[in-house]
Write a structure and sequence with these properties.
Number of helices: 0
Order of helices and strands: EEEEEEEEEEE
Oligomer: single chain
Distance between the termini: 40 Å
Radius of gyration: 13 Å
Helix content: under 10%
Length: about 110
């Protein structure tokens, strides 16, 4: 059974940091991504990483502030978010890829506000 469980969201002031985690189970996934969806907006890709952790990609708005990584021994995906801005407020979802299928977690809410 495939399961993706996110954690680590919360309320932080502008300039603050959070680390999101996503514990994955069920398969050895080929790649992972973090997406986010702000109120009234479409879900957007934030960052991606290959299953071996060797290749990463970021959307321009988070490049240099966010870091995606994996702990393959524990099947955990991370998103370290630094210098957070109010525009980063959204529900963040992890996704994992296996044999042309995409699996999703339930999301964790991040709010950036003073």
């Amino acid at each position: 059974q495939v399961q993706l469980v996110e954690s680590g969201g919360g309320l932080v002031p502008p300039g603050g940091s959070l680390r999101l985690s996503c514990t994955a189970s069920g398969f050895t996934f080929s790649a992972y991504s973090w997406y986010r969806q702000a109120p009234g907006r479409d879900r957007e890709l934030v960052a991606s990483i290959t299953g071996d952790g060797q290749l990463t990609r970021y959307t321009d708005s988070v490049n240099g502030r966010f870091t995606i990584s994996t702990d393959n021994t524990k099947n955990i995906l991370y998103l370290q978010m630094n210098d957070l801005e109010p525009e980063d407020t959204a529900v963040y979802f992890c996704s994992a890829y296996y044999k042309q299928m995409t699996y999703w977690g339930q999301g964790t809410r991040v709010s950036v506000s003073s």
